């Protein structure tokens, strides 16, 4: 039996993603009860330099020369690596590296920062246009067990992708990068990182959704993440979905979903938002998000549930020059982290002010650009908070999550007891079990462990398997 056959890694990732919402809710509630905790997630923009010129990119709305400006203002490598270390010590669980540049333009900063993130066993995600990966970088990323790499591809062929990205040969390079990741994962017998194709949905490609699923399958990617295009500049106006396209869209989503099931890349499709309430209305109303956020929050009387955005309690964005924001859409930076520690920034006055503003529905106009998947995140967090209010509900939620993973654990157990497995495979299985054991679920289970449900969880989770 091969390791690939026994560990459905997507299942583990999906499991962790669900846990994060529980974790956000857990920390937000703690904060509300007077115990201030660190952020859960950091989004990092290592550089604002880019080698492409995509028609829909927010860069197109910037007047200044971002490449030149970034070169002048970038935070040095040493501070990035130190920041990664501080975050590990403050209990951060998740780093996402992207921004409005191409992270691989500064591979000299990126790689050491990624290594430090993994040294603290935080979850790491990298989004890239996939055109600048040398083989040695790919090998290193696989080697450190980086969790997730998203390569942006906006069409199933060079004609569509290159014309949106505005540089010839981009499709060829991006698809090659995915293939090389698949090669190194196999060679180093690793199931990480998971490979996702990120697609910006627009008029030119919405009919190609099913073909994109096929492309993901052919390349060996694990998932396809589709995000409706946000309109940043008039240059991309002709790409906005009109009423006719919006009406046709569900048909293509449905077909893509069917194919996803056939090729076993369904989690991808659920990340489009079909399962996470992909809301056609939101897709159409992109650019009017502020109203949606406030309207949804005002439905609730509970002060914790009526907060329109929870980001300032769990999230932090660090830009290439070291400026820090509580959200990527906010225009005014709050602080600069070059000369302040993460702890000073996160618990400082400026962040506290933002928390107050958001609680009082004072969202700035920039919140209109909030992404549909973030709006969905708020709904999920609110739900988790509601469930968390009642310990029984929370326990049931955890139980459900654990039951979803029963198959996984059985397979792990079988693998651990399979004499034919070689040492490397055994180590990997043990490492996965260790990760599950150090998860929030386990911590919560320990807390509620003596209750009836808690005992059931304990038995289910660790019972006879370990
Ligand atoms: C700004 S890019 C930065 C990382 C990298 N340069 C890349 O292209 O993947 C981050 C992600 O945003 C997506 N993106 C770019 N413009 C967008 C838009 N107008 N609406 C939605 N997503 C967009 C990109 O395709 C990419 O997946
Ligand atoms: S590659 Fe990424 S950052 Fe560069 S222009 Fe395209 S979307 Fe923007």
Quick tags:
alpha/beta; binds S-adenosylmethionine; 22 helices; 466 residues; disordered C terminus; single chain; binds iron/sulfur cluster; 9-stranded mixed β-sheet; 9% strand
Topology readout:
Blueprint: H1 3-6, H2 9-32, E1 41-44, H3 66-73, H4 77-89, E2 94-97, H5 107-119, E3 123-128, H6 135-143, E4 148-152, H7 158-165, H8 170-187, E5 194-201, H9 209-219, E6 223-228, H10 243-263, H11 266-272, H12 280-285, H13 289-298, H14 311-314, E7 315-318, E8 323-325, E9 335-336, H15 342-346, H16 349-359, H17 372-389, H18 391-404, H19 406-416, H20 423-437, H21 440-448, H22 452-461
Parallel strand pairs: 1-2, 1-7, 2-3, 3-4, 4-5, 5-6
Antiparallel strand pairs: 7-8, 8-9
The structure holds S-adenosylmethionine and iron/sulfur cluster (SF4).
The site of S-adenosylmethionine has 17 residues, from strand 3 and strand 5.
């Amino acid at each position: 039996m091969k390791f690939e056959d026994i560990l459905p890694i997507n299942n583990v990732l999906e499991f962790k993603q669900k846990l994060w919402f529980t974790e956000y809710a857990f920390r937000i509630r703690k904060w509300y009860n007077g115990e201030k905790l660190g952020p859960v997630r950091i989004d990092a923009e290592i550089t604002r330099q880019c080698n492409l010129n995509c028609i829909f990119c927010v860069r197109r709305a910037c007047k200044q020369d971002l490449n030149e400006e970034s070169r002048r203002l970038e935070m040095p490598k040493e501070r990035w690596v130190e920041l990664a270390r501080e975050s590990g010590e403050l209990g951060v669980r998740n780093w996402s590296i992207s921004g409005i540049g191409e992270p691989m333009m500064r591979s000299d900063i990126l790689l050491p920062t990624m290594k430090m993130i993994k040294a603290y066993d935080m979850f790491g995600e990298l989004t890239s246009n996939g055109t600048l990966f040398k083989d040695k970088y790919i090998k290193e990323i696989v080697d450190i067990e980086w969790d997730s790499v998203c390569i942006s591809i906006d069409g199933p062929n060079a004609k569509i992708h290159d014309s949106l990205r505005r540089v010839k040969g981009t499709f060829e390079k991006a698809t090659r990068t995915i293939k090389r990741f698949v090669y190194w994962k196999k060679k180093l017998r690793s199931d990480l990182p998971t490979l996702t194709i990120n697609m910006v949905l627009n008029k030119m490609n919405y009919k190609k959704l099913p073909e994109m699923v096929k492309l993901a399958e052919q390349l060996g990617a694990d998932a396809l993440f589709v995000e409706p295009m946000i309109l940043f500049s008039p240059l991309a106006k002709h790409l906005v979905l009109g009423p006719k396209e919006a009406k046709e869209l569900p048909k293509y989503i449905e077909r893509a979903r069917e194919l996803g099931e056939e090729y076993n890349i369904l989690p991808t499709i659920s990340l489009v938002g079909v399962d996470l309430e992909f809301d056609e209305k939101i897709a159409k109303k992109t650019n009017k998000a502020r109203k949606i956020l406030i309207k949804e929050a005002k439905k609730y009387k509970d002060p914790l549930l009526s907060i329109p955005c929870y980001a300032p309690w769990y999230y932090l964005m660090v830009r290439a020059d070291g400026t820090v924001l509580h959200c990527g859409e906010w225009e005014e930076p709050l602080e600069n982290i070059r000369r302040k520690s993460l702890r000073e920034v996160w618990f400082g006055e400026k962040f506290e002010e933002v928390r107050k503003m958001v609680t009082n529905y004072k969202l700035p106009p920039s919140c209109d650009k909030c992404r549909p998947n973030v709006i969905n995140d708020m709904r999920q967090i609110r739900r988790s908070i509601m469930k968390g209010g009642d310990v029984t509900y929370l326990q049931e939620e955890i139980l459900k999550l654990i039951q979803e993973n029963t198959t996984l654990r059985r397979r792990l157990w079988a693998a651990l007891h399979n004499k034919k497995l070689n040492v490397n495979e055994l180590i990997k299985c043990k490492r996965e079990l260790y990760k599950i054991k150090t998860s929030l679920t386990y911590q919560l289970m320990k807390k509620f462990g003596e209750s009836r449900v808690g005992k059931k969880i304990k038995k289910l989770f660790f019972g006879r398997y370990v």
